[in-house]
Amino acid sequence: MAEEQKQTYEILSETYEQEMLAKKKAGKKGGRLERPPKLTITSLMDILTILLVFLLKSYSTDPVAVTPSADLDLVKSKTMLQPEQTVTITVSKSAILVDNAMALAVKDGKVDGSQKRGGEDGYFIIPLNKMLADGMEKQRRIAAVNPSAGKTLGVATIIMDGDTPFRLLTEVMYTAGQAEFNKFKFLTISSPEG
Questions:
Q1: pLDDT by residue (tens digit) across 8-66?
Q2: Three-class secondary structure of residue 189 per DSSP
Q3: Checking DSSP bridges between strand 95-98 and strand 101-105, what pairing results, if any?
Q4: Where are the domains of the chain?
Q5: CB–CB of 129/179 below 8 Å?
Q6: 117-123 long-range contacts, Cβ below 8 Å, gap at least 24?
């Protein structure tokens, strides 16, 4: 019986406790990875909502944007038509712009004779024609890709000051006609009084 009571003892290493703690921690970490992580998307939704509000606020639904200035006092009318996406020609008291890009300066309701073919008596405004020809080419490229945009091919929207001389308007329209714009729309401000 003495032999049966003899027990064997295992010699444990000095780092046994540390090894057991490391195994226990590894077991806990492994347990966490088995379950899918729980995500909270509340913060992300808040950010996306705020971003959406700012984007909608900055997005313009009007195809033509007019920046008010002292040089441009638009004519008022009772029109109910909505503007379309076309090339815009803005004629103010001090400049002519094409799609909000400066084409040339205007002084006292006239274009400098050196900017026109034929001098002071000419109707063809050279820098305006160059920009309008580029605008027509852009319209053609868009119409080639998007057939529904072809309905506005050759249409120009003229935004002009109410005090624009008829001669200047005639020169602008003649020059646009030479750049293959054959239809014109005039942008006005809708007013109930008319």
A1: 666 666 777 777 777 777 665 554 455 666 666 777 778 888 888 877 776 655 556 66
A2: strand
A3: antiparallel
A4: 76-190
A5: yes
A6: 123/170, 123/171, 123/174, 123/175
